[in-house]
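[Meeting: bench + compute handoff]

Bench side (C.D.) handed over the final construct sequence. Compute side (W.E.) agreed to return the predicted structure before the next meeting so the bench team could plan truncations. Sequence as handed over:
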Amino acid sequence: MKLNVNGRDHEVDVEPEMPLLWVLRDELHITGPKYGCGVGYCGACTVHVGGTAIRSCSMPASAVSAPVITIEGIGQPEALHALQKAWVELQVAQCGYCQSGQIMTAAAFLATVPAPTDEQIDQAMAANLCRCGTYPRIREAVKAAAKNLKGA
């Protein structure tokens, strides 16, 4: 099976029903998406497929028909994405486990709602769980990133 991940083409020999998360982590050694619940509930495994935020733990690799972007693909150390910068500046992460999924959800959200209200941010991010409870900081980081993206 062929996959385009973070702008690079890959060919993997896996069972069609293997979840995308395990293809990314075990076959391609991309560790940003995390295993959390395994049923698409927590959001730790969120990646973009064709620009849409999806739960990679519950998507069979054979169902992927568009480019995949992981947290590793949205920014680099020399050119961090506005969300990554906001996460660092506002010290959003505590344990950090859910943060790549949080950022990927926020990036897809900001691509469709560039000037969100607090309520819109809360609704969009509610599908991602953070056991540390950094939701107020997540909201502030999404707002800060939206302002920076708007000015870019």
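W.E. noted at the follow-up: The chain has two domains: 2-73, 75-151. C.D. will use this when planning the next construct.
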